[in-house]
Amino acid sequence: TQLLEQSPQFLSIQEGENLTVYCNSSSVFSSLQWYRQEPGEGPVLLVTVVTGGEVKKLKRLTFQFGDARKDSSLHITAAQPGDTGLYLCAGDRHNQGGKLIFGQGTELSVKP
Amino acid sequence: GAGVSQSPSNKVTEKGKDVELRCDPISGHTALYWYRQSLGQGLEFLIYFQGNSAPDKSGLPSDRFSAERTGGSVSTLTIQRTQQEDSAVYLCASRHTSGGTQETQYFGPGTRLLVL
User: According to the 3-state scheme, what is the secondary structure of chain A?
Assistant: First the structure.
């Protein structure tokens, strides 16, 4: 049973297009994190959202946490080839010691 | 400062052999996590150490897997009698815990294990 459903798993778009990645669950999370992973490296944290309804922006990336803290989205505006990589959402539940539950990941390819 | 380091970076072994994977966390980080990343499966939690508390082993897939953390720093993940389905990237992460805040987990580059 996958506690965090991430979609789409694969996304291939042209430079300049917009895209949204979704992360959904039936469980409530105390926080939700988005990571980016390059080949041969470990995931690197992009953002943590904590409050229901929270929106955070990181340049062309916009992250949103659902009001009920069960889902999140990552929106990229005007994607660039440098955005290519594996994007992972991960949830942190209360009193679980910080151990993360990860979605399956979204492999993004942005073509010039 | 130095990040989380893991060794070896790659390991090829034969089915049935034992392997040891090492993680050096960021100095001063009290929490240490092991995750496994299999192709198409995302990352799954394996085990978690926090200070001197008993580790949370709830994610270990079988009794062939074990881990220890010596002196609150370096950790070793051991897989006995390896099977082909153990082939994956094993990632270690560490985190500074100060209570009540959302501290970041910093990941190492992983050990790529291939069991032939």
Answer: CCCCEEECCEEEEECCCCEEEEEECCCCCCEEEEEEECCCCCCEEEEEECCCCCEEEECCEEEEECCCCCEEEEEECCCCHHHCEEEEEEEECCCCCCCEEECCCEEEEEEC
Residues of chain A contacting B43 with CB distance shorter than 8 Å: 43, 88, 90, 100, 102
Q: What is the pLDDT of residue B99?
A: 59
Q: pLDDT for B93-102, tens place per residue? A: 999 877 555 6
Counted across chains A and B, CB pairs separated by less than 8 A come out at 58
The string of pLDDT tens digits covering residues B13-40 is 999 999 999 999 999 898 999 999 998 6
Which of B4, B33, B107 lies closest to A99 in CB terms?
B33
Contact yes or no for B102 and A41 at CB 8 A:
no
Q: What CA–CA distance (Å, rounded) separates B58 from B33?
A: 12
A63 contact residues in B (CB cutoff 8 A)? none
Residue from the list B45, B103, B110 with its beta carbon closest to the beta carbon of A100: B45
State which H helix or E strand residue B75 sits in. Answer: strand B75-79
Of all residues in chain A, the percent with pLDDT exceeding 70 is 98
Backbone angles phi, psi at B71, to 5 degrees: 60, 20
